[in-house]
Amino acid sequence: MASIEDIADSRVRLTIASAISSRPRTLGELAEVTGISVQGVLKHLNKLSESGILRTRNLPSGEYLRPRKLYFIDSRRVANYSEGEMIVATLGEQTGAGELRVDDPYAELDGLAQDIIVMRRRARELSARMKRMIEEVTENESRIARLIEGLKLSSEEKQIARLIFGDDGPEQARRILRKYYGCANPESAIQGVVEKLAGAVI
Length: 202
What we know:
Elements: H1 4-8, H2 11-22, H3 27-34, H4 38-50, E1 55-59, E2 68-72, E3 76-80, E4 89-93, H5 105-150, H6 155-165, H7 169-181, H8 186-198
Antiparallel strand pairs: 1-2, 3-4
């Protein structure tokens, strides 16, 4: 069975999976949503078919619509709120199987649809905010790396500085220095580098 990693391996496939898990769609609709050719869409649909989640249905000719082949996912829900290079997506189980009893189906559908619009907007805003935060973290990490590289320290001292000021933090740095670098006195090593850094000039 498909995992979100399999689907998110391709941004186009993720877009398709998200689109067809919200409602059945035609090849033409999927080509428009993704901005690729129908042949390109078919390649991604084949991948989804191999994963076992893709379903198809032939829509017969009716009073309003011409016959079309529809593609959909009915057993899982793919939610895609990716932003730029950041992928934010989930693959959930379809819930609520069984018969629903509703007094006013139109009001229920309209209310749910309005809720979804609001929640999707909020989810996109949160994704955009998270993307900005991740970009800030990445920029700060790059700045730390450049600062350490520019200091007049030995390669050993630079590695200790990377541990102290990296995502490991001082406490974890002590453990790592002892366990993976054979440092008999991590406290002394860290203190020595901190003292050098305190008086360092770039």
